[in-house]
Design brief:
It is a single chain. By secondary structure, this protein is α/β, with parallel strands linked by helices. The protein has three domains: about 15-80; about 85-190, Nucleotidyltransferase, domain 5 (2-Layer Sandwich); about 195-335, no CATH class. The chain contains 16 helices and five strands. Helix 7 (about 205-215) crosses helix 8 (about 220-230). The longest helix is centred in the C-terminal third of the chain and has 29 residues, at about 370-400. It is globular and about 75 Å long. The N and C termini lie far apart (about 60 Å).
Length: about 400
């Protein structure tokens, strides 16, 4: 009735074609096996939900497979159209499976006409090896297949072969239409991987205590493991006396030259360490976000972590002082005085209206002193000017 809230009846027509497409999309999105379709319970559910649908109308596995490939083809062309004329930031990773097979993934990040951020997997494939030319050629071939002519950055981890891959791509794509400043800023180090390397060096200092915790609870994530177990030190210590299987397990390990069960000093070490480890955990989560821009967040996190490391290096606690010293060394290897990072990351910081150049200068001054801060601010300012001039040239060419 007019003016009253409630459900409105809308005419709808059932078609076999529409149900087939919806079924194929569900198989894709829910990552179902094709055999799921022929299951009795699914068929009973489908025919109950829509009595007009007969069991004979439910497509076979082969038909659904063809429908899935058809959807893939349509979506691929949509993505090809969305990528046309875009400048894309790439992320790639390689690894070796337990079957000793090498794999590579390539992900593209771009912004559409509505300023919406997109992340799309462009390739996931097996490769012959991890050599720089193998990976470089595979990336080049993938970009040509997608019709991508503009690469802005390529984010990689700190494996030694990745430097060669970057050099290879710089050479083979430097004359592409969308190249920016002859790929001066193409190489982007993965900040999350750098944090992992820094933390790895520091963790070794209290590795014995952490190893005992991991042996007791068998968790992979160091931070989540310690954050949980450090609250239950009295429980674990009491288990040595109350739980025969627990005490026997560690007794056998100790007798065979292994480790003893965790005691008070281990919990004390881990309790002190877990607050510091939380900084790395939160920063890594923020860096790994895919639904929002992360470039402008890196400097805040790195600054806070570096300040905490600097503070720990002056600690009276010998254990944590050694840990911080090793972290500082690794920080210097990958970040230096800020000059070893891609300057585009700093440009993203100063383009953030909440920060600007003053924030950058303040942070560098706090960590490395005014002299380093002045040098870095000028270098970043020069980078911004280069990008501005490059953009003006492009605009001039468009309207010439």
């Amino acid at each position: 009735m007019d003016g009253e809230e409630g459900f409105q009846l809308v005419p709808a027509a059932f078609t076999i074609e529409a149900s087939r497409k919806a079924l194929a999309e569900r198989v894709i999105i829910d990552e179902l096996s094709f055999s799921f379709i022929k299951g009795y319970e699914f068929q009973r559910y489908a025919t109950t939900l829509q009595p007009k649908l007969q069991i004979r109308d439910i497509p076979s596995r082969q038909t659904v497979a063809r429908d899935v490939i058809g959807i893939y083809g349509v979506e691929r062309e949509k993505l090809r159209g969305a990528l046309k004329g875009r400048r894309v930031c790439l992320t790639t990773d390689t690894w070796t499976s337990i079957q000793n097979l090498c794999y590579m993934s390539l992900t593209g990040h771009f912004i559409d006409d509505d300023w919406k951020l997109h992340k799309r997997i462009l390739n996931f494939c097996q490769v012959e090896d991890h050599k720089r030319e193998t990976i470089g050629r595979k990336i080049e071939l993938c970009l040509r297949e997608w019709g991508i002519s503009g690469i802005f950055t390529l984010t990689v981890d700190n494996a030694s072969s990745n430097g060669g891959t970057i050099k290879f791509l710089e050479n083979v794509t430097k004359d592409w239409e969308g190249t920016v400043l002859e790929h001066e800023f193409l190489h982007m180090r993965c900040c999350a991987h750098i944090l992992n390397l820094i933390m790895g060096d520091g963790v070794r200092e209290i590795d014995a205590s952490i190893a005992k915790m991991r042996e007791a609870v068998r968790w992979n994530s160091t931070y989540l493991m310690l954050e949980t177990t450090q609250k239950f030190d009295k429980v674990f210590i009491r288990m040595d006396f109350e739980d025969d299987s627990y005490s026997s397990y560690f007794m056998n390990k100790e007798n065979s030259g292994g480790m003893r069960s965790p005691i008070s000093i281990d919990f004390q070490n881990c309790r002190t360490f877990v607050g510091f480890l939380k900084l790395f955990y939160n920063a890594t989560k923020k860096f790994s976000g895919s639904l929002y821009v992360t470039a402008n967040t890196f400097f805040d996190e790195m600054f806070v972590i570096q300040e905490n490391i600097s503070h720990l290096s002056k600690s009276q606690n010998h254990l944590f002082k050694n840990m911080a010293t090793k972290m500082e060394s690794k920080f210097d290897k990958y970040w230096g005085k800020g000059d070893k990072m891609n300057y585009l990351l700093y440009v993203a910081v100063i383009l953030d209206p909440r920060k600007k150049l003053r924030f950058l200068k303040f942070c560098f001054s706090e960590i490395d002193g005014n002299e380093v801060a002045d040098v870095m601010v000028e270098l970043v300012r020069d980078t911004l000017v280069k990008l501005y001039d490059f953009t003006l040239v492009l605009i001039h060419q468009m309207y010439k």
